[in-house]
Amino acid sequence: MSEGKTSTPDTEIPVTIAMSSRLLFKQEQQDRGPAFNFVKALKAVNAELRSHYPESEELFKVILIDDNPSSGILKHKIHEHGLKDLITVLSVTEDQLVSELKTNNTHLYLSDKPGLKVQEAVNEGIAAATMSTPKTDMPVSEDQLHVVFDGDAVLFSNESELVFQSDGLQGYLKNEKQKVKIPMNEGPFKGFLEVLIKLQKKLHSKGLCKKCPIRTYLVTSRGAGCDGYRALNTLHTWGLELDESVLLGGGKKGPTLQRIRPHIFFDDQKSHINAALEVGSVACLVPSPKNNK
């Protein structure tokens, strides 16, 4: 587990996702925000987990960071949409935010605006990203959570990206060939993937394999050569098996996201974020940890 958590992988604690309340409900008109379908999918997964593990506390828990605690509209909307059992509302100052995230064993923090707090959370070992609203709403599953991860600087460290930036494509490919059997260091979202796969395994053990309510995807610009093999070998070394890995070889991610229809997509490149938003996918920009730069 990452530094932001104090538990061990076998400890049954909630999978805690904190986010700005504006991501769930837009502030003025209280319309649905970009995270609404994601949160509804978390609720659907919890229903399956409760039906098979009624005594377990290992469920998704959403913490809403409320910037306007004096208003009762937010709690009314939570109740109206049947999300009361899933959501806890937290009023906290910006200075105390990261400390509160750590206190609550937060696995993922989603902000509606980029800034130092997202970077600070990542530097403290918490998976964190800035969520953007797509231009159109892509239809997504109501009973199966689809989560898509980029590889470099998201699941993996940014070590290979730094080689690409300094030595170009040929230098990058040479580096990956030389290190093809050497696993990469972990990136900021490895821990979040771990808890998702742990929940998947619990559901698989109850016979929910093909109909598991959680599906995980790797969508990477790496190709099918040594660079792609190194990514897959790294995941295998970690004991993490995603439902699908797509090696695009530098191709555009938009068409793949249109096929997968994710509730949430994590990437560190603004170009891929923009491509996702163009096809209607909710996309989250991941900053690089300072110690990887």
Automatic annotation (TrEMBL):
<dbReference type="GO" id="GO:0005829">
    <property type="term" value="C:cytosol"/>
</dbReference>
<dbReference type="GO" id="GO:0000287">
    <property type="term" value="F:magnesium ion binding"/>
</dbReference>
<dbReference type="Pfam" id="PF06189">
    <property type="entry name" value="5-nucleotidase"/>
</dbReference>
<dbReference type="GO" id="GO:0000166">
    <property type="term" value="F:nucleotide binding"/>
</dbReference>
<dbReference type="InterPro" id="IPR010394">
    <property type="entry name" value="5-nucleotidase"/>
</dbReference>
<dbReference type="GO" id="GO:0046085">
    <property type="term" value="P:adenosine metabolic process"/>
</dbReference>
<dbReference type="GO" id="GO:0008253">
    <property type="term" value="F:5'-nucleotidase activity"/>
</dbReference>
<dbReference type="GO" id="GO:0009117">
    <property type="term" value="P:nucleotide metabolic process"/>
</dbReference>
<protein>
    <recommendedName>
        <fullName>5'-nucleotidase, cytosolic IAb</fullName>
    </recommendedName>
</protein>
